Amino acid sequence: MIRVAVIGAAGRMGQTACQAVEAVDDMTLVARLDADDAIDADHLCGADVAVEFTIPAHTEANVHALLDAGVAPVVGTTGWDDAALERVREHACASGVNALIAPNFAISAVLVMEFARQAARYFTSAEVIEMHHPNKLDAPSGTAAQTAQLIAQARRDAGAAPMPDATQMDPDGCRGGMVAGVPVHAVRLAGLNAHEEVLFGNTGEQLVLRSDCFDRSSFMPGVLAAVRAVRNRPGLTHGLAPVLGLEH
Protein backbone atom coordinates (compact mmCIF):
# COMPACT_ATOMS: atom_id res chain seq x y z
CA MET A 1 0.00 0.00 0.00
CA ILE A 2 1.47 3.35 -1.08
CA ARG A 3 0.79 6.20 1.35
CA VAL A 4 0.11 9.37 -0.64
CA ALA A 5 -0.12 13.05 0.28
CA VAL A 6 -1.52 15.66 -2.11
CA ILE A 7 -0.03 19.16 -2.07
CA GLY A 8 -2.47 21.72 -3.45
CA ALA A 9 -5.37 19.50 -2.45
CA ALA A 10 -7.94 22.32 -2.49
CA GLY A 11 -7.23 23.19 -6.12
CA ARG A 12 -9.03 21.67 -9.07
CA MET A 13 -6.18 19.35 -10.05
CA GLY A 14 -5.50 18.56 -6.40
CA GLN A 15 -9.09 17.57 -5.76
CA THR A 16 -9.06 15.32 -8.82
CA ALA A 17 -5.80 13.73 -7.66
CA CYS A 18 -7.28 13.04 -4.21
CA GLN A 19 -10.28 11.33 -5.81
CA ALA A 20 -8.02 9.25 -8.07
CA VAL A 21 -5.87 8.05 -5.17
CA GLU A 22 -8.91 7.16 -3.10
CA ALA A 23 -10.39 5.16 -5.99
CA VAL A 24 -7.55 2.63 -6.33
CA ASP A 25 -6.77 -0.35 -4.11
CA ASP A 26 -2.99 -0.01 -3.83
CA MET A 27 -2.87 3.53 -2.41
CA THR A 28 -4.16 5.33 0.64
CA LEU A 29 -4.54 9.09 0.94
CA VAL A 30 -2.89 10.10 4.22
CA ALA A 31 -2.68 13.89 3.90
CA ARG A 32 -4.31 16.80 2.04
CA LEU A 33 -2.13 19.92 2.21
CA ASP A 34 -2.82 23.35 0.82
CA ALA A 35 -1.39 26.88 0.83
CA ASP A 36 -1.46 27.47 4.59
CA ASP A 37 -0.06 24.06 5.56
CA ALA A 38 3.61 23.45 6.33
CA ILE A 39 5.30 20.73 4.31
CA ASP A 40 6.97 18.72 7.06
CA ALA A 41 6.85 15.28 8.61
CA ASP A 42 4.01 16.16 10.96
CA HIS A 43 1.71 17.36 8.19
CA LEU A 44 2.73 14.67 5.68
CA CYS A 45 1.49 11.95 8.05
CA GLY A 46 3.91 9.24 7.00
CA ALA A 47 3.43 9.64 3.25
CA ASP A 48 5.72 7.73 0.91
CA VAL A 49 4.90 9.88 -2.12
CA ALA A 50 3.43 13.37 -2.48
CA VAL A 51 1.56 14.52 -5.58
CA GLU A 52 2.22 18.24 -6.10
CA PHE A 53 -0.23 20.39 -8.09
CA THR A 54 0.19 24.00 -6.99
CA ILE A 55 1.46 27.07 -8.89
CA PRO A 56 4.80 27.81 -10.58
CA ALA A 57 5.81 30.39 -7.94
CA HIS A 58 5.74 27.80 -5.15
CA THR A 59 6.41 24.44 -6.72
CA GLU A 60 10.23 24.32 -6.46
CA ALA A 61 10.23 25.25 -2.78
CA ASN A 62 7.57 22.61 -2.16
CA VAL A 63 9.65 19.95 -3.89
CA HIS A 64 12.75 20.76 -1.84
CA ALA A 65 10.67 20.65 1.35
CA LEU A 66 9.35 17.21 0.37
CA LEU A 67 12.85 15.93 -0.34
CA ASP A 68 14.00 17.23 3.04
CA ALA A 69 11.08 15.38 4.64
CA GLY A 70 12.04 12.12 2.91
CA VAL A 71 8.91 12.01 0.73
CA ALA A 72 9.18 11.36 -3.02
CA PRO A 73 7.53 14.17 -5.03
CA VAL A 74 5.43 13.54 -8.15
CA VAL A 75 5.01 16.99 -9.67
CA GLY A 76 2.49 18.18 -12.25
CA THR A 77 2.96 21.92 -11.77
CA THR A 78 4.60 23.47 -14.84
CA GLY A 79 6.91 26.48 -15.22
CA TRP A 80 10.21 24.64 -14.59
CA ASP A 81 13.43 25.73 -16.27
CA ASP A 82 16.70 23.83 -16.66
CA ALA A 83 18.35 25.49 -13.65
CA ALA A 84 15.46 24.58 -11.32
CA LEU A 85 15.40 21.01 -12.59
CA GLU A 86 19.14 20.71 -11.98
CA ARG A 87 18.75 21.96 -8.40
CA VAL A 88 16.12 19.30 -7.76
CA ARG A 89 18.28 16.66 -9.45
CA GLU A 90 21.20 17.50 -7.17
CA HIS A 91 19.00 17.55 -4.05
CA ALA A 92 17.35 14.23 -4.95
CA CYS A 93 20.73 12.55 -5.46
CA ALA A 94 22.16 14.04 -2.25
CA SER A 95 19.12 13.08 -0.16
CA GLY A 96 18.59 9.64 -1.64
CA VAL A 97 14.90 10.51 -2.18
CA ASN A 98 13.58 10.11 -5.72
CA ALA A 99 11.51 12.69 -7.57
CA LEU A 100 9.46 12.83 -10.77
CA ILE A 101 8.51 16.06 -12.55
CA ALA A 102 6.35 15.81 -15.66
CA PRO A 103 5.23 18.56 -18.05
CA ASN A 104 2.10 16.51 -18.73
CA PHE A 105 0.54 13.35 -17.28
CA ALA A 106 -1.94 12.72 -20.10
CA ILE A 107 -1.00 9.58 -22.05
CA SER A 108 -2.04 11.21 -25.35
CA ALA A 109 0.18 14.24 -24.71
CA VAL A 110 3.17 12.07 -23.79
CA LEU A 111 2.71 10.05 -26.99
CA VAL A 112 2.45 13.24 -29.09
CA MET A 113 5.79 14.38 -27.65
CA GLU A 114 7.36 11.02 -28.45
CA PHE A 115 5.92 10.92 -31.99
CA ALA A 116 7.09 14.52 -32.52
CA ARG A 117 10.61 13.55 -31.51
CA GLN A 118 10.57 10.68 -34.00
CA ALA A 119 9.11 12.77 -36.83
CA ALA A 120 11.31 15.84 -36.42
CA ARG A 121 14.26 14.62 -38.47
CA TYR A 122 12.11 13.91 -41.53
CA PHE A 123 10.51 17.34 -42.01
CA THR A 124 11.81 20.72 -43.13
CA SER A 125 9.57 22.77 -40.84
CA ALA A 126 7.99 22.31 -37.42
CA GLU A 127 5.83 24.51 -35.18
CA VAL A 128 3.93 23.92 -31.94
CA ILE A 129 0.55 25.34 -30.96
CA GLU A 130 -0.69 24.88 -27.39
CA MET A 131 -4.22 25.82 -26.38
CA HIS A 132 -5.44 26.15 -22.80
CA HIS A 133 -8.10 27.73 -20.62
CA PRO A 134 -7.54 31.41 -19.77
CA ASN A 135 -6.82 30.68 -16.08
CA LYS A 136 -3.49 29.01 -16.87
CA LEU A 137 -0.68 31.02 -15.28
CA ASP A 138 2.30 30.18 -17.50
CA ALA A 139 2.97 30.36 -21.22
CA PRO A 140 4.06 28.46 -23.11
CA SER A 141 2.88 25.31 -21.39
CA GLY A 142 5.50 22.94 -20.04
CA THR A 143 4.30 20.36 -22.56
CA ALA A 144 4.81 22.71 -25.50
CA ALA A 145 8.25 23.74 -24.28
CA GLN A 146 9.30 20.12 -23.83
CA THR A 147 7.92 19.21 -27.25
CA ALA A 148 9.91 22.01 -28.88
CA GLN A 149 13.08 20.95 -27.09
CA LEU A 150 12.62 17.32 -28.20
CA ILE A 151 12.08 18.46 -31.80
CA ALA A 152 15.16 20.67 -31.70
CA GLN A 153 17.35 17.93 -30.21
CA ALA A 154 16.19 15.39 -32.80
CA ARG A 155 16.95 17.86 -35.61
CA ARG A 156 20.40 18.56 -34.20
CA ASP A 157 21.12 14.84 -33.89
CA ALA A 158 20.07 14.37 -37.52
CA GLY A 159 22.14 17.32 -38.77
CA ALA A 160 19.01 19.02 -40.15
CA ALA A 161 19.32 22.41 -41.81
CA PRO A 162 17.77 25.46 -40.11
CA MET A 163 14.03 25.74 -40.69
CA PRO A 164 13.11 28.18 -43.48
CA ASP A 165 11.43 31.44 -42.44
CA ALA A 166 11.70 34.65 -44.46
CA THR A 167 9.98 36.81 -41.83
CA GLN A 168 11.81 40.12 -41.40
CA MET A 169 9.16 42.25 -39.70
CA ASP A 170 7.09 41.03 -36.73
CA PRO A 171 6.87 43.89 -34.20
CA ASP A 172 3.99 42.24 -32.32
CA GLY A 173 5.57 38.79 -32.02
CA CYS A 174 2.93 37.12 -34.16
CA ARG A 175 5.34 34.36 -35.18
CA GLY A 176 5.20 33.11 -31.59
CA GLY A 177 7.93 32.53 -29.04
CA MET A 178 11.07 30.64 -30.00
CA VAL A 179 11.84 27.64 -27.80
CA ALA A 180 15.13 25.99 -28.79
CA GLY A 181 14.64 27.51 -32.24
CA VAL A 182 11.12 26.09 -32.70
CA PRO A 183 8.18 28.54 -32.94
CA VAL A 184 5.64 27.95 -30.15
CA HIS A 185 2.23 29.64 -30.08
CA ALA A 186 0.12 29.86 -26.90
CA VAL A 187 -3.66 30.26 -27.12
CA ARG A 188 -5.73 31.11 -24.02
CA LEU A 189 -9.42 30.71 -24.79
CA ALA A 190 -12.54 30.25 -22.68
CA GLY A 191 -14.00 26.77 -23.15
CA LEU A 192 -10.67 25.04 -23.70
CA ASN A 193 -8.96 22.72 -21.24
CA ALA A 194 -5.57 21.43 -22.48
CA HIS A 195 -4.72 20.86 -26.14
CA GLU A 196 -1.60 20.71 -28.31
CA GLU A 197 -0.92 20.56 -32.04
CA VAL A 198 2.46 19.86 -33.55
CA LEU A 199 2.72 20.80 -37.23
CA PHE A 200 5.38 19.35 -39.53
CA GLY A 201 5.81 20.35 -43.15
CA ASN A 202 7.69 19.33 -46.28
CA THR A 203 7.12 20.47 -49.81
CA GLY A 204 3.73 19.05 -50.79
CA GLU A 205 2.92 17.34 -47.46
CA GLN A 206 2.00 18.00 -43.85
CA LEU A 207 1.86 15.93 -40.68
CA VAL A 208 -0.34 17.08 -37.78
CA LEU A 209 -0.08 15.52 -34.32
CA ARG A 210 -2.76 16.57 -31.83
CA SER A 211 -3.66 15.82 -28.24
CA ASP A 212 -6.96 16.93 -26.67
CA CYS A 213 -7.60 16.63 -22.94
CA PHE A 214 -11.19 17.59 -22.23
CA ASP A 215 -11.23 16.90 -18.50
CA ARG A 216 -8.74 16.80 -15.61
CA SER A 217 -9.50 13.11 -15.18
CA SER A 218 -7.42 12.50 -18.34
CA PHE A 219 -4.25 13.19 -16.33
CA MET A 220 -4.96 10.73 -13.54
CA PRO A 221 -3.82 7.42 -15.10
CA GLY A 222 -0.44 9.04 -15.67
CA VAL A 223 -0.34 10.47 -12.14
CA LEU A 224 -1.09 7.07 -10.63
CA ALA A 225 1.53 5.40 -12.83
CA ALA A 226 4.09 7.95 -11.64
CA VAL A 227 3.17 7.41 -7.98
CA ARG A 228 3.70 3.68 -8.43
CA ALA A 229 7.01 4.13 -10.25
CA VAL A 230 8.82 7.03 -8.57
CA ARG A 231 10.31 5.11 -5.64
CA ASN A 232 12.02 2.71 -8.06
CA ARG A 233 13.57 5.41 -10.26
CA PRO A 234 16.71 6.86 -8.59
CA GLY A 235 17.28 10.61 -8.64
CA LEU A 236 15.10 12.87 -10.77
CA THR A 237 12.90 11.51 -13.55
CA HIS A 238 11.81 14.27 -15.94
CA GLY A 239 8.68 13.43 -17.89
CA LEU A 240 6.34 10.48 -17.90
CA ALA A 241 7.86 8.86 -21.00
CA PRO A 242 10.41 6.75 -19.05
CA VAL A 243 7.62 5.40 -16.82
CA LEU A 244 5.73 4.31 -19.94
CA GLY A 245 8.79 2.58 -21.41
CA LEU A 246 9.45 5.33 -23.97
CA GLU A 247 13.04 6.09 -22.93
CA HIS A 248 15.35 7.05 -25.74
From TrEMBL:
Belongs to the DapB family. NAD(+) binds at residues 8-13, 40, 76-78, 102-105. The gene is dapB. Pathway: Amino-acid biosynthesis; L-lysine biosynthesis via DAP pathway; (S)-tetrahydrodipicolinate from L-aspartate: step 4/4. One of its GO terms (cellular component) is cytosol. (S)-2,3,4,5-tetrahydrodipicolinate binds at residues 133, 142-143. Its EC number is 1.17.1.8. It is an enzyme of class 1 (oxidoreductase). Homotetramer. This is 4-hydroxy-tetrahydrodipicolinate reductase. It holds the Pfam family DapB_C. The keyword NADP applies. The active site is at residues 132, 136. Residues 109-240 form the Dihydrodipicolinate reductase C-terminal domain. It is found in: Cytoplasm. It catalyses: (S)-2,3,4,5-tetrahydrodipicolinate + NAD(+) + H2O = (2S,4S)-4-hydroxy-2,3,4,5-tetrahydrodipicolinate + NADH + H(+); (S)-2,3,4,5-tetrahydrodipicolinate + NADP(+) + H2O = (2S,4S)-4-hydroxy-2,3,4,5-tetrahydrodipicolinate + NADPH + H(+).
